Amino acid sequence: MRYIAKVNVRHNGVLYVPGERLTGVEDNEAVRLVNLRAIVSDSSQPLIDMESGRDTTMHLTAEAFSELKAGEQKSMLQKLGMVPESSADKRVKQYATWISQQEEG
């Protein structure tokens, strides 16, 4: 999938300005940057609908979520409509529960 910078984004040593297409973005990094509202998919469809919290195309695995910084985890959980837990382990459990609910429909 291709992405467009919404703000200045430095990725793999390259500075992308708003409107430029990013190249070589891994899925996990793309989800992180979309959640930070730094990039959008080339089709202008967000990976996660921030209003409903519904996954529109993909989501991080619980393992990938656990690798995010605490602030990124909390921000993502808030955007999904949750109150983030205080510990990293509990936030990962929250996110894993959300993934299960998305898979169930």
Query: Regions with pLDDT < 50 over 5+ consecutive residues?
Result: 44-50
Average pLDDT value? 78
SSE-based structural type: alpha+beta
Q: State the end-to-end distance.
A: 24 Å
Q: What number of domains? A: 2
Order the strands across the largest sheet as they lie in space: 4-1-5
General form: elongated
How many beta-strand elements? 5
Portion in strands? 5-15%
Helical stretch tally: 4
> Secondary-structure element order, as H and E?
EEEEHEHHH
Computed over alpha carbons, the radius of gyration is 14 Å
Helix content: 25-40%
Fill in the keyword field for this structure.
13% strand, three-stranded antiparallel beta sheet, 39% helix, 105 residues, alpha+beta, 5 strands, elongated
